Structures are given as structure tokens and as C-alpha cells.
Prior knowledge:
Elements: H1 2-20, H2 23-31, H3 38-72, H4 76-89, H5 96-131, H6 135-148, H7 153-179, H8 183-196, H9 203-233, H10 237-250, H11 255-281, H12 285-297, H13 302-318, H14 344-347, H15 357-372, H16 376-389, H17 394-412
Amino acid sequence: MKIKLLIVGVFCSAWVLAASDPDAVIKTMSKDGNHISNTDKDLFKSSVRSAKSSIALDMLDSFYMDAVDFQNHRRYDDALELYEKILSIDPTYKDASSRRDAILKTRADAESNTQQRAAQDYIRQGDASRSKGLSVQAIAYWKQALEKDPTNTAARKRIDDTNKAMARRQFEAGYIHYKHNEMEDALDSWQNAIAFDPSLKNRGLLLLMSKIELNLRREQLTRLANQGYDQYQAGDLASALKSYDEVLDIQPRHDEARQMSAKIKNQLGKIEFKAAQSAAADKHYDVALDHYQASLGFGWEPVKSQTGIQDMKHQMELAKLPPPTPKPKAQPKPKVTAPPPDNGPEQGPPPAVAIDPKAAKDHYRAGLQAIRGKDYQRALAELDQARQLDATDERIYMAYQRARQEWAAASNTQ
Length: 414
């Protein structure tokens, strides 16, 4: 009888301990291990496990009730935190998973609705700008609508329709320029139009554009060659060389330009070589070094020029003079890489009034010239300046987009 009472007493102690500190039961069992049978030990362990499960279930139930209460009161952050705790302990607990997913869906729907409302607001602002004839500003608003809602077909269609309308106006402007013998303007207008609406491209127009391009190229070569000759006659050898080099950039086999370029380089090289000798005689070794290097750059007496360079460096070392700062070399044209993304939408809609139309036109012209020379980085820089000064000009907007297209096409062929 005493043994039974002892067992019952220990058993009751196990329940009490399990409620407060379940692990303490194990310690009690280990102390009284010599007085309890193996069967009783198994009973104690089972009781501990049962107590732990009961405590865990009570805790999950408490979390769940709080989470449901938070959810009903739209305190979604608090509810989500508790649902995540519940699911980390028991992934199958009641409907915690579906309730959590419902909150996430509610949030996603709310965010989507907010984005769609913002997109609709931008569309309305774009429509208002279009009704005022501000096509470029309207497109900027519609692009912002697409930033908010990329699936908004209404904004996309408005952009496409407006681009085509501007292309049609440029297409017609091209023929007006052509009738007035403004060939460069005609060519630029047609190229802008085709960049925005390839359907305007037809065989007859392409032949006409090719003919104009050929004539303009011939005129440019003639103008540069005559300019180089006049500069040479005036004794401005450096400018003459630059003009003839521009001719060779356009047509590398231009006989007159090749002959004159070689002749001028010889003359400039000879002048630099004599200046180097004179400076060396006066012991101005740093100045002499510069002239010898220039002489070598023009290809004049390469062996003698190179010897002069070495001699001047030796004399400067003996005199302990610091070497001259090398003149910056002409930077080669950067390799064609992918054009930067159009950052129009991020900057917001452009102003409805031009800041400086005249300066914008100058940058526009410079941008077109850079496009013809396939210097797309410079073209984009000039046209970006132009659109900042006059964001209402459709030609500037179209030329900028055309430059990006041509740069992208050129980079794909590298």
C-alpha cells in the first residue's frame, strides 16, 4: 500500500512539473529511478510528452485566436506575424495557411488597384495634354501610366497612335522640305518618320532618299575639299589638315584629300623638327622634346625625330629637369555599345512651354549632324540638351528616339 501511494504521489508530481517545467520530470525520475519500475518510467515519459503537446496546442490556439482577431480588424501585419509563427511550429494547423494567403492576396489586390488608379490618372493627364496639342508631354504621361501598370493596353495604344500621327506629320513635312530644295531637312524628316512608323517606308521613297543622300555626300565632300584648299592657301595648315581628314573620314580613297593630307603633314613635321632643333640649341630641352614628338607624330624623319626625343630626355636627366607633362592625345571614338534606356518616364512629364527654342534648335541640328556621322553618343547628348530646352518639339523627340534606335541597330552588328 505504501508503495502504491508513493507511485501515485510521484505521478502527481510529474503532472505538476510538466505544467511548469516538463523537463524537470526527467530529473525527478532520474533521482527516484531506484524506487520506480520500468513500467512506471514509461508512464512518466508518456505523461511528459502529453503535457508538452498540451502546452504547445494551447499556445498555438492562443496565437490563432489573436491572429484571427487581428485579421478581422485589418491589422494585417500583426496577423501575418502570428500566422507565420503558427506555421513554423505546425504547417498543418487548422486553416492558418489559407488565412495567411488570403491576407497576402488582399494586399496584392489593394496594391494592384492602387497602381491601376494611378495609371488611369496618368492616362487622363495625357489625354488632356494631347487635346492641347502637346503630343510629347502626353506620351510622357502615358509612359508613366505604363510604369504603374505595364498591362495597361489603353496607354500603350495611345502611345502607338500618337507616335504614328507624329510620323505622318514628319513624313508630309519631308515632301514640303523637298519641294523647297531643303534636302537635308527633307531627309531628316523622312528618316524620323520611318523610325516611328516603318509602314511609311516604300520603294519609291527609299530610292529618293538614297539619291538625296548621295548628292548631299558629294556636296559635303566638295565643300570640305574647297575649305581645306582655301585654308592651305591662307597658310592655316592645321585647319586645312583637319578639313582634308574629314574628307577622308567620309571617302577614304579621295585622291585630292590623300595627297594634300600627306603634303601638309610633311610641311608641319618639318616645321616641328626645325623648332625642336632651335629649342635644343637654346637648351630648352622640354620644349624641344615636345616639338620632336610632334614631328614624329606627323611622320617627318622618323629616325631623326626619335633620336632627338632620346637626346632631349637624356639632357633633361643630366640637368635633372622634370619631364614635361605629355600632351593629351586625341581620344578615339568610343566603341559602339548599347544605348542607355530612355529615362523620360522617370523624370516626369516635360513642361508645356519651351525654355529656349532657339538654343534647342541648335542642339537639334548638332544632334542630326552627329547621327549622320554615326557618333550616337554625341547625338544623344545634343538631342537630350535640345529636349530639355524645348520638350514640346516633336522633331526633337523623334530624332532622340531615332538616335537610340540607330545606336541599338549599330551595336547589334558589332
